[in-house]
Amino acid sequence: MKLRHFTTALAALGAVFIIYVGLSYLIAPQATAAGFGVPTWPQHEGTAFLAVKGVRDIASGLVILALLLTGHRKALGWAMAAIAFVPMGDAVIVVTSGGSVATALGVHASTAAAVVLTAVLLLRERPATA
Question: How is residue 36 annotated by DSSP?
Fold first, then answer.
């Protein structure tokens, strides 16, 4: 398998996954929120913050798909490097909010690592030959 195919698969998988997570926050916010890792969640009108997270996640996935589908692989690499800030920030939020360190590392930091790995692989690609 060529590196290009592998990075394409990683980017596409990441985009689909984060769009799924975002939709989950919009469709079933309280149920989905339990896996985030912090001990408490907004109630009643405060659940709008969960919708904000859902929309943010969907937007991240759509940016990845747009750059992937248009063939802007270098820009995709840089965008994914920037997007890695989101799950790292989520990990910090979980730990500093009294949440589980295991969840912070296992869910959020590992996601950030996968996004950074994909970004590095994309940025190391050579242009495709005709």
Answer: T
DSSP letter (8 states) at residue 108: I
Locate the domains of the chain by residue range. Answer: 3-124
Angle subtended at Cα 23 by Cα 46 and Cα 90, rounded to the nearest 5 degrees: 60
pTM of the complete model? 0.88
Residues 116-128, mean pLDDT to the nearest whole number:
91
Instruction: Evaluate if residue 130 carries a pLDDT over 60.
Output: no
Ramachandran region, residue 109 (left: φ > 0; alpha: ψ -120 to 50; beta: rest): alpha
Pair 25, 57: CB distance under 8 Å? yes
Identify which of 128, 20, 10, 127 has the alpha carbon closest to the alpha carbon of residue 80. 10
Asked whether residue 113 carries a pLDDT value surpassing 90, the answer given is: yes
